[in-house]
Design brief:
heterodimer, A: 342 residues, mainly alpha, B: 535 residues, alpha+beta, 7-stranded mixed sheet, 6-stranded mixed sheet, globular
Chain lengths: 342, 535
């Protein structure tokens, strides 16, 4: 037992040590890519609107007249202190954008992942367990179709059916205007805020707004999981230890659920984690379709306005999230599958 | 487009006296500034829009979305009432001038900001000075050019002999200065709360308007609440929610579902058509001063040839654009001065006819020995003016190429890159649009045809500059209209700019919402305070 925990700790240290150069490479790439674009952020956003002298003054004020290496070191220092600067277009601290809009994205992502996991694991497991039956065909077909359908198309269909025609669900935003205003926000996750403040009416309202975008996004991601779980379950069911379990008289239900299914999930964890990290960077199309005030739609707006400071800040943050989640996935994988550590 | 009216100061010799209209003192009917009138109703209005906010500080805004909210939160010395065109007293009881150079404005007694601090002439002077000194690239200090050059405050430009008197000493006579005092550049901010050299954070704005800003969630929501210390009539509602939508399709769905009460700016023509006759919804139309046009850069081929510009003017079929692209929701425009403004003429229709004239265009090109097809690179921006721009310019391309006289290459790019290139000789011909800064024909004429125009078309005509000087200096309507008419005639002949269409304003409201029609006027100020809900 001591050996197991020792190897896990060693793996963890190794993995964190590897994350540092990964992080540096990522930050360097972001920094360089933003400098490859013609001009500097000040010129890009304000060029043509200010006299050259004023542009030069602002460039100097922002440090863009400094040698590249000095700018790079300052950039690293800012990132280390979570200071991503202030947007040029609307004078918002980028950290505010990340906190406010990032929370909206996180809420949508978490809900979508729950739906994706439930859908993907259930249908994937059934398809794998009942391979080549009508259940399997149906499950695979559903997985392919739902994955292939553009998320904005599914979203629009859902809006028409459940919003416009049936009138069951609201079609846009995180909450109704009054709830958005009156809800006491502690975490910026509206559902959590409504729950911890005991505001039942707001909770229902937020949930109603969340259902449609989360379901649409969750189903699309779920399409990937369906295929992944099915394939892995089929592979696992062919394993010797599964045969051995069957030979010992273990019921088929227990063979699948207690032996095969858990092991089949190991590779799924990696994909789930990476998908989660990608979504945190912004489910742009879903956010646009449902007027969801997430970080992805803000990134698009800043890109449109060539606000490179905002874009650099948001991309840096997204990169940090991906690095952190990757690290987390590796640790979880190592924890549930000791072979990974060696 | 992002409005960039350049307000050139010109000669004037008239005295202008603006006296209070209707009542001697604004706010009399509500007890002036001594009482705290409660909102007339406790209605809550929810307005949905696709506009966005750049800044809520008057020194940092020159865009539609920011101005829309600021109009509710701030006050100006003068304001244009709903349906009106002339400035009337607001914070000031009067603004008088004998020579159109020195304007003396007298403030109401006892004015306060929404935070309770007193509003005095010092605040007025501070507001103008900081706007000019900050000279924010997103700001509208260019509107105050008569007072001082952007970025360079001129000592003595404003005097404040006492708490209620403000004296503007303009650099040159300007008869339309009162109209400038109604614009976003002239919002008054408190000198003890706003920084003199930087912008106020958007969630900390303080004004003396009809509402206070209760909440601002960028890109998502603005909440306005009736300002109990407002000097005039209280709003017809207690609270206004402004919900921001990224796409008009989402705005339309929210309206259909009853999530919002009012949809105003911007629907696609298809949206409007599908909402007409929808149960529980009413499409309201009002006059608007929004225009669209495309401009030639006269320093670049092929627009440097007069014949090419004239041929293009002859080939554009405005009615087809109105019918095919905008489904009749806009009107053809035959002058840069839209219908409804004094002095408007149908100059392009008179000069080139209403319909396309391919024979005339071919003749003009042949007479000038211009080789056909004329290669024309025509630029537009795909989202800034709404989703219909691509269709509009595809239609214009089709019209210009229909008879083989032009070979058009359509190009497009997003707004920020677009403005930078368009105004620095990057595009031979390009799309633009315009909303009025103030309701006066000058805003549509001097902005485009002055040799100092922000468009940088390299168009200069001494007679046009002279006439612009005349209309800016004069307070005689007949004289001004005569000047406008001659300018339109000259510029139609020289055709540096081809007007395309004039928009009407469309708002779509749910049953029971009142007062919206009243505020749909050419000022483009959506006056929430006039909007109520019937029981």
């Amino acid at each position: 037992m001591a050996g197991r925990s020792h190897s896990l700790r060693r793996y963890l240290f190794t993995r964190i040590a590897l994350a540092i150069p990964m992080l540096l490479i990522l930050l360097t790439l972001v920094f360089l890519l933003m400098r490859v674009a013609p001009g500097d952020p000040i010129s890009a956003a304000l060029g043509g609107r200010l006299p050259q002298a004023e542009l030069d003054r602002r460039r100097a004020e922002a440090g863009y007249d400094q040698p590249l290496i000095q700018q790079y070191l300052e950039y690293l220092g800012d990132v280390a202190t979570f200071d991503f600067g202030t947007t040029i277009v609307d004078n918002r601290a980028v950290t505010d954008v990340i906190v406010q809009n990032g929370a909206a994205t996180l809420e949508l992502t978490l809900a979508a992942m729950v739906i994706a996991m439930v859908t993907g694991l259930t249908i994937g497991a059934l398809s794998g367990r009942f391979r080549d039956t009508s259940i399997d065909v149906g499950g695979r077909l559903f997985g392919i179709v739902i994955y292939a359908a553009p998320v904005f198309y599914l979203g629009f269909l859902a809006q028409l059916v459940f919003g416009k025609w049936l009138g069951w669900l609201p079609t846009s935003g995180r909450a109704s205007p009054v709830v958005t205003f009156e809800l006491e926000t502690k975490t910026n996750l509206f559902l959590v805020d409504a729950a911890i403040t005991g505001n039942g009416e707001a909770f229902v309202d937020v949930l109603e707004h969340l259902v449609m975008p989360a379901t649409v996004l969750g189903l699309v991601i779920g399409g990937v999981f369906i295929r992944l779980v099915r394939v892995n379950l089929i592979q696992t069911l062919k394993g010797d230890y599964v045969e051995a379990a069957r030979a010992r008289g273990v019921t088929e239900r227990n063979v699948v659920m207690r032996h095969a299914f858990k092991n089949a999930l190991v590779p799924v964890v990696t994909v789930v984690g990476l998908q989660f990290a990608l979504l945190l960077s912004g489910a742009v199309l879903t956010e646009q379709t449902f007027n969801w005030p997430g970080i992805g739609s803000e990134l698009v707006r800043y890109l449109d306005n060539r606000d490179y400071i905002a874009v650099q800040g948001i991309i840096t943050f997204a990169g940090l999230v991906v690095v952190f989640v990757s690290l987390l996935i590796d640790v979880v994988n190592a924890w549930i599958d000791p072979r990974v550590r060696f | 487009m992002r409005r960039r009216g350049r307000f050139a100061a010109t000669l004037a010799v008239f005295a202008l006296v603006l006296a209070a209209c209707g009542s001697d003192e604004p706010g009399d009917d509500t007890g002036g500034t001594t009482g705290e009138p409660a909102p007339a109703t406790d209605a809550t209005i929810i307005h949905g829009t696709t506009d966005s906010i750049v800044s809520l500080d008057p020194a940092g805004q020159y865009d539609f979305g920011s101005n829309q909210i600021s109009q509710q939160v701030y006050s100006t010395l003068l304001e244009v009432p709903a349906g009106g065109t002339d400035p009337e007293p607001a914070l000031a009881t009067s603004c008088e001038s004998e020579d159109s150079t020195v304007y003396t404005c007298t403030l109401q007694e006892g004015l306060t900001f929404s935070d309770g601090s007193a509003l005095t002439s010092e605040d007025v002077a501070f507001s103008f000075q900081r706007n000019i000194e900050i000279d924010d690239p997103q700001g509208a200090c260019s509107l105050l050019a008569s007072l001082a050059t952007c970025g360079k405050w001129k000592e003595g430009a404003i005097e404040t002999p006492d708490d209620t008197t403000v004296v503007f000493n303009l650099q040159a006579p300007n008869a339309v200065w009162p109209a400038v005092l109604t614009t976003s550049a002239a919002f008054i901010v408190p000198s003890d709360s706003y920084p003199a050299d930087s912008l106020q954070p958007d969630d900390q704005v303080i004004g003396s308007g009809r509402y206070t800003l209760a909440e601002y969630r960028p890109g998502e929501q603005v909440v306005l609440e009736a300002n109990p210390s407002f000097y005039g009539d209280p709003p017809l509602n207690a609270r206004v929610f402004v919900q921001y939508f990224k796409q008009s399709s989402a705005l339309k769905l929210a309206l259909e579902q009853g999530e919002i009460d009012i949809g105003w700016r911007t629907f696609t023509p298809t949206d409007v058509s599908s909402l007409e006759g929808a149960e529980g919804l009413n499409v309201l139309e009002g006059p608007g001063g929004e225009i669209r046009y495309f401009a030639f850069n006269l320093s670049l081929p092929p627009g440097d040839e007069l014949a090419v510009r004239q041929a293009a003017a002859m080939l554009v079929d405005r009615q087809a654009i109105v019918d095919n692209v905008y489904e009749g929701t806009v009107e053809p425009l035959y002058s840069m001065l839209p219908a409804g403004f004094g002095g408007h003429t149908e100059a392009f229709a008179e000069r080139y006819g209403e319909g396309p004239d391919p024979d005339g265009a071919a003749q003009v090109l042949e007479d000038a020995d211009v080789q056909t097809p004329v290669e024309l690179e025509l630029w537009y921006t795909p989202t800034h003016y709404g989703d219909a721009s691509a269709d509009e310019y595809a239609e214009i391309e089709r019209q210009l190429e229909a008879d083989g006289l032009f070979d058009v290459t359509l190009e497009s790019t997003e707004w920020d890159q677009y403005t930078e290139d368009a105004f620095t000789d990057g595009y031979p011909a390009y799309q633009l649009g315009w909303f009025p800064d103030y309701v006066d024909g000058d805003n549509y004429i001097s902005s485009f045809y002055s040799s100092a125009s922000f468009l940088n078309l390299h168009y200069a005509n001494d007679r046009v500059d002279e006439l612009i000087g005349v209309e800016q200096a004069s307070t005689d309507d007949a004289e001004r209209e005569a000047a406008f008419e001659e300018i339109q005639e000259i510029t139609a002949e020289e055709a540096p700019i081809i007007p395309i269409w004039q928009g009407t304003q469309l708002a779509i409201v749910r049953d029971g919402v009142t007062g919206v029609e009243e505020t749909l006027d050419p000022t483009y100020i959506f006056r929430y305070w006039l909007i109520g809900k019937s029981e």
